């Protein structure tokens, strides 16, 4: 079925106030022609949302998923604009342009090879410098001497993008990229939504989604939602932007499975704090291990 945008004046219900829900609400609010309501059972930023975090990687490298790469490229001016807006209000920045360093073992995996190829084909090949020896990597990033000693021996630097890749422990870096303070970014776009007239309904009963409300005569037609307080909210369009919670709300026929990841926060020893503050975001053979880390932050 072909997509048809909602008609001007439509009431749009968005369930979920994390990064997907807020970005959707904000984008729609820019049209200035919809009545937009966001429902969530918790105040925003929602403690249970994956986007409520102190850091998320901002990168170009997504193998052959070029949609994500182009979205990252398009987002860069906005990250800088948001930093500027926050500086004017004496608020902390949401984007930190540290660069991103990706390590692989002995040679680049398909993930890094496809990422480099996609960046080059998109016209950003001049962002990338390749480090073809362990010595070159250590000269650029002495903090990673132990990583090189443990088999990460080749890398590429994305000078404009914010990510590093190592291919004999390869790494890639894009200096335009780095990491964002995710929870603060959520707060920032939340305020933008409020400024644009988006309505928020939050609370364990009044904002808590219970089920879709469908036409009694045509159960496949969604007319709105019902919240835990048993109130029915009609809408011309209902969007579930509920992330990993989605499969628990509607039957996804096993197309969506929630997963978890172990995260460790620690305070570095004083003698390493300055060194680790100046390092890029790093990823250790990301496509195979999912292992990555961040520079020292204010916390």
TrEMBL record:
Keywords: FAD, Flavoprotein, Oxidoreductase. Its cofactor is FAD. GO terms for molecular function: flavin adenine dinucleotide binding; sarcosine oxidase activity. InterPro entries: FAD-dep_OxRdtase, FAD/NAD-bd_sf, MTOX. Residues 11-295 form the FAD dependent oxidoreductase domain. SUPFAM superfamilies: FAD/NAD(P)-binding domain. Belongs to the MSOX/MTOX family. PANTHER family: PEROXISOMAL SARCOSINE OXIDASE. This is FAD dependent oxidoreductase domain-containing protein. It comes from Rhizopus azygosporus (Rhizopus microsporus var. azygosporus).
